């Protein structure tokens, strides 16, 4: 985690896609901060259903954590469709998911998390929110370089310089496996939170909500579904 928040910080902005990781991060934030807001980014993603899932996930997370429900404040959506059009990756256009010339999956949107953090930092500054929280992870992930801890730490330093104040960026999932992410949700909110994440969050790159698995909805074959399914199976087997 980069630029760790001090014990005196009381407010946070969660980068919130409506997927498993950001739903878990939202619960983690509600456990720790007196005031929590969320921000989502519309970058023309192929799995736009995640934008539709966000409000349901917010609602169900607070139902699972009623003792912290009053901590959840406003939600914001930032229009980044112009940025999303630059890359034309498999995340934003209809094309097969495969590795590119660098060995990266072609679902990688160049600079996406960097843009997200810049936009989130600007919003947090105007909203008086002290800490940014993201679900980036470099353990069980799709190989995106902007999910790595070094990248997030460097971005946090740049934001702190650019805004002339400390900009803590916390990444509670950075060094966790997907199984440990399920475990974190269970620890924070028990079966109610786990069921809310299964039923309402969305992670599938193809935006498939027609197939219901024990771990949630998705095509079951894209990299995001494979990671989520494998993590759930490992956690459930313990």
TrEMBL record:
Its cofactor is Zn(2+). InterPro entries: QueC (IPR018317), Rossmann-like_a/b/a_fold (IPR014729). Its EC number is 6.3.4.20. SUPFAM superfamilies: Adenine nucleotide alpha hydrolases-like. The keyword Disulfide bond does not apply. It catalyses: 7-carboxy-7-carbaguanine + NH4(+) + 2 ATP = 7-cyano-7-carbaguanine + 2 AMP + 2 diphosphate + 2 H(+). Binds 1 zinc ion per subunit. It comes from the Bacteria. Pathway: Purine metabolism; 7-cyano-7-deazaguanine biosynthesis. ATP binds at residues 16-26. Keywords: ATP-binding, Ligase, Metal-binding, Nucleotide-binding, Queuosine biosynthesis, Zinc. Zn(2+) binds at residues 204, 219, 222, 225. It is an enzyme of class 6 (ligase). The keyword Acetylation does not apply. Belongs to the QueC family. Catalyzes the ATP-dependent conversion of 7-carboxy-7-deazaguanine (CDG) to 7-cyano-7-deazaguanine (preQ(0)). NCBIfam families: 7-cyano-7-deazaguanine synthase QueC. This is 7-cyano-7-deazaguanine synthase. It comes from Brevundimonas guildfordensis. The lineage of its organism: Bacteria, Pseudomonadati, Pseudomonadota, Alphaproteobacteria, Caulobacterales.
């Amino acid at each position: 985690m980069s630029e760790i928040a001090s014990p005196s910080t009381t407010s946070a902005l969660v980068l919130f896609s409506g997927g498993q990781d950001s739903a878990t991060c939202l619960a983690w934030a509600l456990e720790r901060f007196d005031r929590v807001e969320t921000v989502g980014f519309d970058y023309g993603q192929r799995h736009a259903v995640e934008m539709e899932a966000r409000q349901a996930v917010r609602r169900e997370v607070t139902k699972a954590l009623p003792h912290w429900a009053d901590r959840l404040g406003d939600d914001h959506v930032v229009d980044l469709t112009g940025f999303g059009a630059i890359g034309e990756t498999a995340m934003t256009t209809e094309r097969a998911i495969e590795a590119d010339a660098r060995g990266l999956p072609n679902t990688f949107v160049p600079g996406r998390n960097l843009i997200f953090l810049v936009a989130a930092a600007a919003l947090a500054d105007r909203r008086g929110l002290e800490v940014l929280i993201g679900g980036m992870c470099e353990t069980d992930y799709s190989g995106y370089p902007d999910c790595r801890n070094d990248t997030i730490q460097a971005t946090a330093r740049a934001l702190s310089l650019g805004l002339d104040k400390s900009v803590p960026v916390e990444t509670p999932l950075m060094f966790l496996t997907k199984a440990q992410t399920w475990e974190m949700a269970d620890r924070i909110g028990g079966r109610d939170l786990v069921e809310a994440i299964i039923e309402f969050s969305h992670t599938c790159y193809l935006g498939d909500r027609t197939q219901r698995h024990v771990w949630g909805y998705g095509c079951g074959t894209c990299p995001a579904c494979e990671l989520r399914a494998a993590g759930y199976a490992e956690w459930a087997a313990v």
